[in-house]
Amino acid sequence: MLIKDRDPAERAVAQLTDLLSLNLSSTKKFLIERELKRLNPAGNGAQTASHFINFYCGDCPDWAIIHDLKIESNGVATQIDHILINKFLDIHLFESCNYHNRIKITADGEFLVFDGHQYHSVDSPLEDNQKRTQMLADLLTENKILPKRLGISLKPKIVSYVLIAPDAEVVRPPATVYNTSSVVTANCLTKTLLRQVGRLKRTLERIKRLPKAFKKDTLAKVAVKMAALNKPNLIDYRRIFCLEDLNIAPASGASNQDDAATCEYAI
After folding, report:
1. Contact 96, 84 (CB under 8 A)
2. For labelling, which of 2, 168, 196, 245 has a CA lying 20 to 30 Å from the CA of 221?
3. CATH number of 51-233
4. Sign of CA dihedral 129, 131, 136, 141
5. What is the mean pLDDT of residues 44-66?
6. By C-alpha distance, which of 33, 264, 240 is closest to 254?
7. In this structure, are residues 248 and 238 in contact, taking their beta carbons and an 8 Å threshold?
8. b/e per residue, 229-250, with b = 16+ CB within 10 A?
């Protein structure tokens, strides 16, 4: 069931377009253009992570979907691209990276993205997901969003993934050196991984190795409360791309300045 769709992207697109008019390094320009493509896929919706997730899980009552959740905790803000919650209230967090060419992941965890001409070093989405996971877990606990079972509040169970384009090539180190199994293509995730997880859960439930699943209305209530944490005006791309020192007037799509002034960004 779809609980929250993506927020309107017009303001963010305007903000990013303004930044592209600056004299930027090739890496900064690449990162901003990649973010623009992610927000505004220009008719390529059939290839977006949102499309795959909605197509395979949108009509399934055993999964609740939240897209584009912007949250803040202790002065730090972040954005979670996609969240899937199953009937056991297990939470799956997804960072959707708009990588369509080649990605190299080194043995020490560095991410290198090829733009068709050269490689760019980018922040590790695996490390970023660890920050997002902890922030979301803290908010769920602080706001008492998860229900109780036998009088005891559930602890958040969150697993994170990095989604890449179906046509992207990934060069990985051996799993024994650096585990990158959570970096998956969006179509692989929805067609294979989620179905495997569902089958495993049902099997374990039948042999009574897992507690009984929650009712569907409980799943919906938890997801609605989680979606209510959304703060759509938190994103300030000048800070995200470390451009706030440049002499530039606020973009037409700039974020709420009160939020931007009090939040650092975990991206």
Report:
1. no
2. 196
3. 3.40.1350
4. positive
5. 78
6. 240
7. yes
8. bbbbbbbbbbbbbebeeeeeee
